[in-house]
Specification:
Elements lengths: L5 E6 L19 E2 L2 E2 H11 L4 E6 L4 H6 L4 H9 L3 H9 L4 E6 L6 H6 L2 H4 L4 E4 L3 E4 L4 H12 L2 E7 L9 E10 L2 E9 L10 E9 L3 H6 L11 H11 L2 E5 L3 E4 L3 H12 L6 H14 L1
Parallel strand pairs: 1-4, 1-6, 4-5, 8-12
Antiparallel strand pairs: 2-3, 6-11, 7-13, 8-11, 9-10, 10-12
Helix pairs in contact: 3-4
This protein binds 1-O-phosphono-alpha-D-glucopyranose (G1P).
Amino acid sequence: MKSVKKAVIPAAGLGTRFLPATKALAKEMLPIVDKPTIQFIVEEARAAGIEDILIVDGKSKRSIEDHFDSNPELEAALEADGKLEKLQMVQETTDINLYFIRQSKPRGLGDAVLQAKAFVGDEPFVVLLGDDMTRDEVPLTKQLINQYEKTGESTLAVVKVPHEETKKYGVIDPIEKVGDNLYQVRQFVEKPNPDEAPSDLAIIGRYLLTPEIFEELENTKPGKGGEIQLTDAIDSLNKRQHVYAHEFTGRRYDIGSKIGFLETSIEFGLEHPETKDELREYIKKLAQEM
Ligand code: G1P
């Protein structure tokens, strides 16, 4: 069995939910306290043993490339000022095998993943979406790799969501549990209305896919919203090989919505050594006034 060493991070979305902030700035560069969200995603991949990462970006995404590049002027200034901790912090992100490709037109998530075909070649790989951040003892990406090492087949992550929220996600129709938190799946449906949703198990942005997905993507017609949907290609793949669903039980942060982004910022702010004490006091004071 080939080991999983490559990851693809689609980052070509227009970020319309965060306008006007994302008019000129990539939404993946919005920080949680002091770290751009895409850096958390890259760190999760690396913690799972991923060696090479392809970022599929679009227009206005130069800042992502710059963030993971060296910045000699800044580094020299920090060194001269003896700010060695900060120096280490900015150098950390340059020591990663990152590749970039541009999705010329926003044709959907499936099309973004298809751009990774040459990079991936004939290997299993993971896809990480920037709208979900996760935390658990074992990083979610590593959990998917562990499942793959048992089955040799594609596996994606799902979580239970309130039924009325199924219309925001890809949803699975599970057949039965076939292992620890692992489901065999009858069907994958992109953003069903709650009255048609086959379950409350929603796909979150972590997928481990075999390279056969590219043939499916090439044959996938535009689906929901007129876009090439990854969920539709996965549903076709599931008819050729199994695509399993792994139920994630750790902490998930939905940073693709404004409220989720604010909640995550507060939680991380309450842990950050430079902000936690003052933020706790501030929240207490605010709560008393409400
Ligand atoms: C995408 C997928 C969807 C999945 C979701 C997870 O939707 O198409 O199946 O449930 O990511 O975040 P998007 O949120 O990009 O519309």
